[in-house]
Amino acid sequence: MSDFNTSTVREVEPGIFVTELYNKTAENGVQQIHIYIIPGKAGVNHGRSLMIDTGFRTTDCLVTLEQALKDLHISVTDLDIFLTHRHHDHSGLASILTKEGARVYMNRQEERHPYDCIAYKLTVESREAQKHVLHSVGVDPDHTPEIWSTFMRLSERVEEEGESVLATLGFPYTDVKAGDLFCYGDYALKAVSLKGHTYGQMGLIDEAHRLFFPADQLIEGISPIVATTYPDEALLDGFFQSLAWIKHHCKESEGWKLYPAHGNVITRICEDVDLTVYSYLNKSSIIKEILKKADHPMTVREVAEAAYHIQKLPGDDGAFFQYKMMVTKTFSLLEYLMGLDFVTRSDVNGTFYWKIK
């Protein structure tokens, strides 16, 4: 280990550092993220350094991140950023850092939709996509006016403020594909596809050092959200497949360590994978029972409210954020059950209805 440890960074592996960024804004849901940094080394990739993700778009986070880079003697103009996915807590500062000279790498599949019920891009297209998405899950101004107006209020805030905590601004980047190699310091990191948490999420793996950065695909003690409201993308199935790969490839007996974006370093890999899968399978069983007992086809919103025992509308921004996460997670579960031929989906004037098969 080196003597680079400061108040802003600590060394977690030889030549790999982490800085912690925090944002206590209620609607974030997530309030903390690990940003991993590998300082450059002479003779390797022109001495450039690597940073995995950027953190929240706040002044405090930018100041902390800039100090961490200063402590590690890294210039932003010599910095490459690997964005695992485009959620606001991972990509919030990307637009600022690229303007300062950093280079960003990201899977272009993260641009697949302008709006996914979790993060916005500041475009007219995203506002129209939001309305389409809300209708599809059973939220509309006629039947659920309070929920609809809350979503509209959030959109107006994004447009007025220009950089809401849930918005991600545009930035230039280089497309990343599975198998691409990123060499920095003493490490050779390969990009790995991690479909599930988002459609195009990617992680980085170093086979020689038995290290894996799985982004939000596996978090100790927490089931990562697999949330979407777009049909036929098989996110939950992809999530299960990637977890199976992690479990069988990153063997505990071989000393593998996983450094997620949130929470503790993971060494009990099999246990954490099994618990994560179980939590989703358990909730899918609950949803099956709800549909079995229903006397009519149900919208995603109705299923979500029954599955998560929601009896009243969210009372504040934090509760509303959790509410919409439950709706999007329910959509993924219903899509998974449909893929297994347990449920059917019908489209009535842009709203999906679900029933047991």
Query: Could you tell me the number of beta strands?
Result: 16
What percent strand? Answer: 15-25%
Q: N-to-C SSE series?
A: EEEEHEHHEEHHEEEEEEHEHHHEE
Number of discrete domains: 3
Look at the structure and give the CATH class of the largest domain.
Alpha Beta
CATH topology description of the largest domain? Metallo-beta-lactamase, Chain A
Instruction: Write the CATH homologous superfamily of the largest domain.
Output: Ribonuclease Z/Hydroxyacylglutathione hydrolase-like
Question: pLDDT below 50 for ≥5 consecutive residues: which ranges?
Answer: none
Number of helices: 9
Shape: globular
The biggest sheet amounts to: 7 strands, mixed
Order of neighbouring strands in the sheet with most strands: 1-2-3-4-5-6-9
Cα end-to-end separation: 58 Å
Key features of this structure:
five-stranded mixed sheet, Arc Repressor Mutant, subunit A, 19% strand, alpha/beta, Metallo-beta-lactamase, Chain A, 3 domains, seven-stranded mixed sheet, 357 residues, 9 helices, single chain
Descriptive report:
There is one protein chain. The protein is an alpha/beta fold. It folds into three domains: 10-112 and 168-270, Ribonuclease Z/Hydroxyacylglutathione hydrolase-like (Metallo-beta-lactamase, Chain A); 120-166; 282-356, Winged helix-like DNA-binding domain superfamily/Winged helix DNA-binding domain (Arc Repressor Mutant, subunit A, Orthogonal Bundle). Helices cover 35% and strands 19% of the residues. It is built from nine helices and 16 strands. It has helices spanning 59-71, 88-91, 94-99, 124-137, 145-161, 235-249, 269-293, 300-307, 317-339; strands spanning 10-13, 16-22, 32-38, 49-52, 79-82, 103-106, 120-121, 167-168, 174-175, 181-184, 187-193, 202-206, 211-213, 257-258, 343-348, 351-356. Helix 1 (59-71) links the parallel strand 4 (49-52) and strand 5. Helix 7 packs across helix 8, helix 7 crosses helix 9 (317-339) and helix 8 (300-307) crosses helix 9 (317-339). The chain is globular and about 65 Å long.
